[in-house]
Amino acid sequence: MQNDNLTTSDYVVVKAKENGVTIIGLTRGKDTRFHHSEKLDKGEVMIAQFTEHTSAIKIRGKASILTKHGIVESGE
Fold first, then answer.
1. 14-32: per-residue pLDDT in tens?
2. Which domains does the chain have, with CATH numbers?
3. Which end of the chain is more exposed for a tag (fewer CB within 10 A), N or C?
4. Residue 67 has pLDDT above 70, yes or no
């Protein structure tokens, strides 16, 4: 059975503006913990989704982050 929260959760698009941009997924629950990380090089794009396990995403380095709320620039 498919969880409707997983299919309707918000997405974010992260586009690296330099090599070595790090994206870190943080867990939900009583204690917030790192649960996944990815490294992007300049020009690479990652599409991430908030789920029942992911409550936050931390981004290190220069990147453009596209959300339903607009575009945010990190690392500047």
1. 999 999 999 998 887 777 7
2. 4-74 (2.60.40.50)
3. N
4. yes
Q: Is 8 helix (H, G, I), strand (E, B) or coil?
A: helix
Which residues lie closer than 8 Å to 36 by C-beta, 6 or more apart?
24, 25, 54
What is the C-alpha R_g of the chain? 13
pTM: 0.79
Amino acid type, 20? G
Partner residues linked to 22 by β-bridges: 39, 60
| Three-point CA angle 33, 36, 6, nearest 5° | 90
45 pLDDT more than 90:
yes
- CA dihedral in degrees (11, 17, 22, 25; nearest 10)? -10
Token pair, residue 25, equals 């997924």
CA distances to 8, 11, 28, 29 from 62, rounded to whole Å, are 28, 19, 26, 29
